[in-house]
Every structure is written in structure tokens, then in C-alpha cells.
Amino acid sequence: MNTFLPAGYRYAGVRAGINPSSDKSKKDLALIISGVPAVAAGVFTKNRVKAAPVLLCKRRINNKISAIVVNSGNANACTGQQGFDDAVRMGRTLAELLDVPETRTLVCSTGTIGVPMPVKVIDAGIRDAVTKLAPDSADDVASAIMTTDTKPKQVTRTFNIGGRQITVHGLAKGSGMISPNMATMLAFILTDAAVDRPALKSCLKDAVDLSFNRVTVDGDMSTNDTVIALANGLADNKPLRPGAPGWKAFQTAIREVTLELALMIAADGEGATKLVTVIVRGAASPKDAQLAAKSVANSLLVKTAWYGSDPNWGRVMAALGYSGAKIQPDRVSISYNDLCVVRNGISANAPIKRFSEIIEHPKFTIEISLGLGKNETTVYSCDISHEYVNLNASYMT
Amino acid sequence: MNTFLPAGYRYAGVRAGINPSSDKSKKDLALIISGVPAVAAGVFTKNRVKAAPVLLCKRRINNKISAIVVNSGNANACTGQQGFDDAVRMGRTLAELLDVPETRTLVCSTGTIGVPMPVKVIDAGIRDAVTKLAPDSADDVASAIMTTDTKPKQVTRTFNIGGRQITVHGLAKGSGMISPNMATMLAFILTDAAVDRPALKSCLKDAVDLSFNRVTVDGDMSTNDTVIALANGLADNKPLRPGAPGWKAFQTAIREVTLELALMIAADGEGATKLVTVIVRGAASPKDAQLAAKSVANSLLVKTAWYGSDPNWGRVMAALGYSGAKIQPDRVSISYNDLCVVRNGISANAPIKRFSEIIEHPKFTIEISLGLGKNETTVYSCDISHEYVNLNASYMT
């Protein structure tokens, strides 16, 4: 992939051998370095069981950041004080090699839960990776952070502010496992824009709510989910903040990059064959819209019906009914793409052939109208396939 | 199955041909008749989208009941006013044939959602079934109400009160589909005891909370779930109520029958290969215990790990962490049967071989201690297999 990258970053991705049972050619350790300390912002998992690197990042995210070390193959979660010390050690090793304060490093991990980190393997991997840092090696990072992802995920946007070209570059990994353990979503948004820290923080939060927080693969929330944004200011624009020239363009770029990465994650969900957009309109409250959309998007019966191309709107009605959202069955309408299949809670007698054709596609939209108010939301989901069961049932050998 | 049955009931189960695409030898219409009008109690789905027969039963459950007609193959859900009229008609047809008031009939359905009832087929089936009513045909009812269940489910208990023998007989169908549609749980608890209506109602509610409400197959809640208890008084005991002689024995019998049926349902979940009991202790509140247990029992990642015999406690920790229950990771302990695998939130270094042996069994228990209080609960669950995806992805042909 030939991505256009922001100024001032260097990248490396290497094979350290963190999980000895995984593919022996798979890169599993990555570095992202900003030559100039960058303003940072982060959004982290709401799971009350947080991996050690999440706890460490939360402590350091308000510092200026010079370097991020990321590994796949071990989540460093449920590893206690030793796990936290190991995460600190990873940052310290990198800081010493780069000669930056260790408080300017961040650490992210994804992989198996509950297994102590192989610290020597990781130390060696960091030393190796530092020798390979290059401004055009972002592809190696995108590969090294993958677990069961089938494709690396990168997106860029460029735009101009007062004659300065600004680049926003995103890298992500989605739901997946390297050995059978907790799926983890990681994303890194890198830009050469100059941005005020509070502005970056609110911009990232807003973009995550509109993108990653609207993706559901299996409804399970990881101990390691992390989204980090760095802005190193090398584009030399006047610092961006709400209301300033270029702010809207910046906000749009961040939103577009995160949304595109989120859709890549949904489409590449474990074993997924279909990307389904679920839109709920006419909800009595914003919370009702969320409850209804997530209930449909997470229902195992709905997701297996998508997999089987089954024109089965009854399962959608049932999922709405138990969602906890305010529902009046005789006000509900449901369309698949532009085909209305339910009107006022009962069959609209849509031609079964057209209905079947729509849900055989690898991408379609379900639009649900609750007829109770003006609130709406959109959620991105995928089907549950035999391959999902394969990937998640197999033992770690 | 040679069950000992309560006095005064007659049963029939026939093939009506309600879903023409299903197995041509499968019985799909059943009658349960009490010669003496019985005191009734019911517990119904909390789904806001309720099938027509659920709406009808809720109206009639406080009447004395003489007859129940049950069909599989069509749920009569999301069928609007026509569906309600069809349910009324089923009860009326039966009432006329038996010469009882139609308000003394109940109607239950399970099967495909959103398809109009084939009323002529059902009428003919009811007429046929009435000619076959017999006091020893309960097996036919147990078969006729099945959808994707692999086994019929019946349980009986007998006990004495003041020299009178009392029998409690339960029939149930579990999560399953006849053509690809919403799973439905139906259960009928029949007894010849004399019971006060309020006492029967509270006894049934209590038993359902301890049994059916603790079973989770896929987390999806049906539009048709119904549990009905009838007590016709033919055992001629002094009417049972709390505090009366025999009340405890009656309550125990109802609890045992419903729990045994519930465990049969969990073990026979669609494609299930393992029955897993999840016990949560030490929760800060009763609600926290429920949230934690249901989160673990419903997690797709946990359930696929059970299927794959994967000794993967990390997924249990993660499910606890996002359950919404109050959790302090460093106070959590987890045991599989008697093997402690997590102590204070980190690996207890249990021998992996013993751990693997336990979860390869078709039945095991996960006991979670949260260390935050004195509240506990138990939930019965099963794994998610390839066969689950097969059953729920296939199109209705």
C-alpha cells in the first residue's frame, strides 16, 4: 500500500516471536516515532478489566508523546503488578534507545489474556525495530499489529489550511485473535497538523463516537481497546481549535479516517462475509435509538440469518422487542435497502425474490423506523459465520 | 417415555401440516384437556413484540381453563389483527368441539414469525386431534410442540398430602426453529392438586425465576415464550396455599419440575454440545450478580471457547469487565469445577492439563467469586457450535 504519510513520523514493524505458537513469519512488534514530541489524545476501553498498557497510556496521554510501541500476540491483560511493570519496561527500553524521557512513550498490546509478557523477547524486538525505523515503513506497522485480521488497515486524507498541506493518517487492527483470546481493537491517528490538546481530545472523542463506537462484530468488549491520536505540528499551520480557520476541514478528515477504518474493521470481522449497516429512525430518545440498533446488530439469530441470506425480518422485530427501547409494534416499519418488508408491524408482502437478492449481497442496509420520535442512529455490523466459530473455538496450539 | 400422569387430563398430538416445508411426519398440533375446569397461572415473554396467542392467553389466564391448543410451525407473531382473530378462532373451534365456553381455552404457538396462520389446516388439525384425545397420550403432545428440539421434554413428580397422592407433570419445548425463525420456549405444568389461584400464580412465578429465567441459549428473547400451569383439584386435597399442610412439598415439586425442564432445554440448545452452569458469588448486589452471570453466559467469545474446549479464562474476565456489574479485577477468583484458575484477578497457574480435561466434559461448572458482597446467582448456559450456525443460517426451504 502506497500511503501518503504525514511529516515527521518514522515507523518500524518486525518479527519478535512473542507468541511462539503463531505464524513464524508474522510481524508482531511495531514502533511509531514522532521526531518532534506530539500533542496526544486517547480513547480507551470502558471494560472494567483493563490491560496493563491501557492503564499506563491513561496515565501518560496528557504528556507530549515521542514514541509508541505496539505488540500483537500477548494482551498483557489480567497480569497484575508484574504486567504493569512489564508495560513500563517496554516504554523505558524504547525511551533509552531513542534518548527521550520514558514518560513520552506509550505502550499498546493485543493478543492472549492472562499470559505474562515474554520481556526478553520484547526487549530484543524493540532493539531490532529501532534499527529499522524509516519514514516510509508504515505498512510494516499495519502488518505487525494484525492478529486475525485478514487485511492491514490504513487510510489517509490531505487538505490545505492557509497554504499548508496537512495529512491525517490512520492505522488500525480489528477484532481478531492470534491465539484464541480476546479480540482487540487498536487504532492510531497520526497528523502533522498543529492542534491544541483540548481540541484534539474533543475531536477524537467525537470521531470515535461516530465510527469505532458504532461497530459491532460479536458484542464482546475487549480489555485492550485503544485509539490514540498524535499531532506533531510539523505542517506549521496556526494551531487548530474549534472556530479557527481549517478546523472544520480537520474535523472532517479525522471523522473520515476513523469511519473508514471502522468500516474496514466491520467488513473484516472474524469470519464475516457481509457488512450490514443498521439505521434506526423515529426513536423516542437518543438512548432508545442506540438500544434498538445495537440489539438488532448484536442478535445472534439476526447475524446468523444474514450469513445464511435468510429473508427473515421476524428476528429483527423480536430483537427490537427485547432491546429495552420504547417500541410500539404496530408503528414499526423495516426496509432492506429500498425494499419495505414490514409496514405497521406486519408483513408488507414484499416480493421474496427481491428480498432474497438484497440479503445475498455482501453489503446492505437495514432501515428501521420506530415511528415514535425524531431520534436516529447508525450502527455497522457483520454476520456470524462458520468461520467465526472456527476462529474462536480453536485451542491455542 | 412412560410418565406417571396427573388425574383428569387428556392429551392429543397430531400432524396437521402447518408448515408445509417441514418434515412431513412431524406432529405439529397438540391438545391438553382438563375434564374439570382448572385453576390457571401463566408467565409470558417480556418481549414488547408479543405474538397473538400470548396476547390472548394474558386476557384469559385468570379464567378457569378447560383446554389448551398448541401448534408448532407458525408463531402467529407480527401478524396484526388478523393474527389475533386467528388465535381467537383456534380457541373457539376447540371450545365448540368440546362444548366448553371459549373463554376457558388457551392458545399457544411456536414457529415462523410474520406468516399468516393457515386457518383451514389448523381447524382440520384440531378436529382430528379431538378424536384422538386420551389420558395416556402426553408423549404425543411433547412431540408435537417440538421444533428444532432433538428430544421431547417431560418431567413428573408425585408426593402425598394427608393421604392424597398428588402428581405434577411438566412438558416443554426449548429454543429451536422449525423453519428458520425465532426460537420459542413453551412449557405446561399440569397437576391434579387443588390450589388457590393466587398461590399457584406466586408459586409458578417463583419457580420460573429459579429455572427458565436462568437459562440462556443465545441471548435472544422470543415473541412467544409462555409457561402455563393448570391445577384441576382432582386429587381432592385441601386447597394448597402458603402455610397450609403440603404447601412446601408442592412448591418443591413445581420447582423441581421446572428446573429439570429448564436444564433439558439448555442441554438441548440448538447445536449445543455442552451444558455449563455459571455461578456468581460475592456480588455487591443481586442485580450485579445477575449482570455478571448473564454477561459470561451470553458472551459469544466465551461460548465458542466452551465449544472448542479452550481453557480460556481471559474471555470470562473480559465478559465480567463489560457486564456493567461492579467489579474489582484484583478481587476476582474463578474456578472450573473444583480447579481454581484465577486468583485475585491473575492466573492461579492451574495445571493446563487438568483445566483442559474439565472443559472437554459435556457438563461443567464455572464458579466466579467477585469478592465484593454476599449476593449470588446461578445461570445455565450452553456452547455455540457450528451446528448452531447451520440451524440458524439455513433458508426456509
> What's the CATH topology name of the largest domain in chain A?
L-amino peptidase D-ALA esterase/amidase
Proportion in helices of chain A:
25-40%
Which of globular, elongated, flat, extended, rod-shaped describes the shape of chain A? globular
Distance between the termini of chain A: 32 Å
Task: Itemize the secondary structure elements and their pairings.
The structure is a homodimer of 397-residue chains.
Chain A: E1 9-14, E2 29-44, H1 52-60, E3 65-74, H2 80-98, E4 105-112, H3 119-130, H4 138-144, E5 153-161, E6 164-173, E7 186-191, H5 197-210, E8 215-216, E9 226-231, H6 247-267, E10 275-283, H7 286-298, H8 300-307, H9 313-321, E11 333-336, E12 339-343, E13 346-347, H10 352-360, E14 363-369, E15 375-382, H11 386-393
Parallel strand pairs in A: 3-4, 7-9, 8-15, 10-14
Antiparallel strand pairs in A: 1-2, 2-3, 2-9, 5-6, 6-7, 10-15, 11-12, 11-14, 12-13
Helix pairs in contact in A: 1-2, 2-3, 5-6, 7-9
Which characteristics define this entry?
homodimer, about 400 residues, alpha+beta, L-amino peptidase D-ALA esterase/amidase, Ubiquitin-like (UB roll), 2 domains, 8-stranded mixed β-sheet, 7-stranded mixed β-sheet, about 30% helix, globular
Kindly describe this structure.
The first copy, chain A, has 397 residues and is α+β, with helices and mostly antiparallel strands. The first copy, chain A, has helices at 52-60, 80-98, 119-130, 138-144, 197-210, 247-267, 286-298, 300-307, 313-321, 352-360, 386-393; strands at 9-14, 29-44, 65-74, 105-112, 153-161, 164-173, 186-191, 215-216, 226-231, 275-283, 333-336, 339-343, 346-347, 363-369, 375-382. In chain A, the strands form 2 sheets. In chain A, strands 1, 2, 3, 4, 5, 6, 7 and 9 form an 8-stranded mixed β-sheet that branches. In chain A, helix 1 packs across helix 2 (80-98). In chain A, 59% of the residues are buried. The interface between A and B is large, with 65 and 65 residues.
